[in-house]
UniProtKB/TrEMBL annotation:
Enzyme class at the top of the EC tree: transferase
Gene Ontology biological process: isoprenoid biosynthetic process
SUPFAM superfamilies registered for this protein in UniProt: Terpenoid synthases (SSF48576)
Keywords: Isoprene biosynthesis, Magnesium, Metal-binding, Transferase
Coiled-coil portions: none
Identification of the protein by name: Polyprenyl synthetase family protein
Native organism: Halorubellus litoreus
Length: 280
C-alpha cells in the first residue's frame, strides 16, 4: 500500500497547492470544499500509474492527474445540482453549502484550473477536450434521450464515465512520451475500467446503504435515471457479471502493452478487479 499511498500523496499535495492559489478567497473556499472533502482519487492515480507503466516517472504525470481530478470534480458539482443531491462524499454538496450560483461558478473555476495544467501540451489539451465532449453528450443523453436497452446503456456509460477514465490513462501515457499504440491501449484499458465502475455505481445505488456509501441511494429510480438495473432489467448479480466482463476486457488491453511486469502495471490490474467489488 505504501507504493499507492505515495502516488495519492503526490496528487493530494499538488491539488492543495493548485487550489490554495485560487482567487478570490470566496472561490478558493468553494473549490477546496468540492475537491478536498474526500474522494478516492481513482482517475489521477490511473494517470500516474499509466505514466509509470509506459516507462515514465510518477512526478511527470502529477499535474495531469490533478487536472483530470479537477475536471471530474467540476462534473460532480453539476451532477449534484441535477440530482438535487444534498451530500457528496459524506459532506454537504456544493449547491447545498453555497447555493446554485456559487456552485456553478465553482465548477467553472475547477475547469479553468484544470486546463491551465493541460495547456503545457496541445496533445493533452486535445485528449481532455474530446473527453469533455463525450461527457457532455452522455449527460445530455441521460436527460433527454434515455437509453432503452443494454447497448444504448453501455454507450451512455462509455461517454458518461468511460471517456474521462480513458483521458486519465492517455494523459499518463502522454506524460511518459509513449508511442501512439501504447497511448491507445492504455486508454482502452481505462475506458473499460470506467464502464465497469459506472455499472458498479448503479448496482450500489440500488443495493447499498446510504450511510455506508456516503451519499443518498435510490437516486436512479427516483430520478427515472437510466441505470443498468432500470434499463436492462438485469438483477444486481447479473449486472455485476456485466461489469466483470468489462474488467476482463480491460485486462486484455493492458496485457497488449509492456506494462504487466511493472509494479505500476500490477496496480492497474488490481484496479480493474477492484472496481467490480468495491462497496463505496
Amino acid at each position: 500500500m505504501e507504493f499507492l499511498e505515495r502516488r495519492q500523496g503526490l496528487v493530494n499535495d499538488r491539488l492543495r497547492e493548485v487550489l490554495s492559489a485560487v482567487e478570490p478567497a470566496a472561490l478558493r473556499e468553494q473549490v477546496e470544499h468540492v475537491s478536498l472533502s474526500g474522494g478516492k482519487r481513482v482517475r489521477p492515480v490511473v494517470t500516474v500509474l499509466a505514466c509509470e507503466a509506459a516507462g515514465g516517472d510518477a512526478e511527470d504525470a502529477v499535474d495531469y492527474g490533478v487536472g483530470i481530478e479537477l475536471v471530474h470534480n467540476a462534473s460532480l458539482v453539476i451532477d449534484d445540482i441535477i440530482d438535487k443531491s444534498d451530500l457528496r462524499r459524506g459532506t454537504a454538496s456544493a449547491w447545498t453549502e453555497y447555493g446554485h450560483g456559487p456552485a456553478i461558478v465553482a465548477s467553472d473555476g475547477l475547469l479553468g484550473e484544470a486546463f491551465a495544467l493541460f495547456s503545457q501540451d496541445p496533445q493533452a489539451t486535445q485528449v481532455v477536450a474530446e473527453a469533455m465532449v463525450e461527457l457532455g453528450e452522455g449527460e445530455a443523453t441521460e436527460l433527454a434521450a434515455m437509453p432503452t436497452n443494454e447497448d444504448e446503456y453501455m454507450e451512455l456509460a462509455r461517454r458518461k464515465t468511460g471517456a474521462l477514465f480513458r483521458a486519465a490513462a492517455e494523459l499518463g501515457a502522454i506524460a511518459a512520451d509513449a508511442d501512439p499504440y501504447t497511448v491507445e491501449k492504455l486508454g482502452e484499458y481505462a475506458e473499460r475500467v470506467g464502464v465497469a465502475f459506472q455499472i458498479r455505481d448503479d448496482v450500489l445505488d440500488e443495493t447499498a446503504d446510504a450511510d455506508d456509501l456516503g451519499k443518498p441511494t435510490g437516486i436512479d429510480e427516483a430520478m427515472e435515471r437510466p441505470s443498468v438495473v432500470q434499463v436492462t432489467e438485469l438483477s444486481a448479480a447479473e449486472a455485476t457479471e456485466r461489469a466483470e466482463a468489462e474488467s476482463a476486457a480491460a485486462l486484455d488491453a493492458l496485457a497488449a502493452v509492456d506494462a504487466d511486469d511493472s509494479e505500476a502495471g500490477q496496480y492497474l490490474r488490481d484496479l480493474a478487479r477492484f472496481v467490480v467489488v468495491r462497496e463505496r
